[in-house]
Amino acid sequence: MIGWLAVLVVAIVLVIQFIPVERNVSTVPPGQSFERTQKVPANVAAILKVSCYDCHSNNTSYPWYSELQPGAYFMAQHIKEGKEELNFDEFNDYSKRRKKAKIKSIISQIEKDQMPLKSYLLLHHDADLTPEQQKVLMQFFQSELEL
């Protein structure tokens, strides 16, 4: 009985590998819109690229495990939800009020150490924000609120 169950589980895992998942890849270079319109300093842009853009832009840098199901599905869902919450590549299309709300939310997320998600950091250690990087981001986004 256990042998048949194991065969069934392996068969299901193999079959789900053929279920396609939409990829988050745009022809627009990553972060171009936000970086250009907000005049983002190079040090801030570098932090955002490593720690934010995979889930909050129209371009994701896909690691090897993104090819395997069910991980690919969960990753696609995280990206979809992240872009719905904030998309740096579409930031310039937001109203002035929405931009301010998003910036306030970014500041709050950084203060509470809620972004990047802990689940993302498990496999992307380089995305973990150091206290110095948090300070740089906070200063940049605070200055954006004052504009």
Short description:
With 147 residues, the chain is mainly alpha-helical. The protein has helices at residues 2-16, 32-37, 42-51, 53-56, 71-85, 96-111, 118-121, 131-145.
How would you describe the overall organization of this protein?
This protein has 147 residues and is mainly α. 58% of the residues lie in helices and 0% in strands. Helix 6 runs antiparallel to helix 8 (131-145).
Task: Write the SSE topology.
Blueprint: H1 2-16, H2 32-37, H3 42-51, H4 53-56, H5 71-85, H6 96-111, H7 118-121, H8 131-145
Helix pairs in contact: 6-8
Q: Main β-sheet, in a few words?
A: none
User: Radius of gyration from the CA trace?
Assistant: 18 Å
Low-confidence stretches at least 5 residues in length (pLDDT < 50)? none
- Helical fraction equals 55-70%
Shape: elongated
Order of helices and strands: HHHHHHHH
How would you classify the helix and strand content by structural class?
mainly alpha
Number of strands: 0
Properties at a glance:
147 residues; mainly alpha; 58% helix
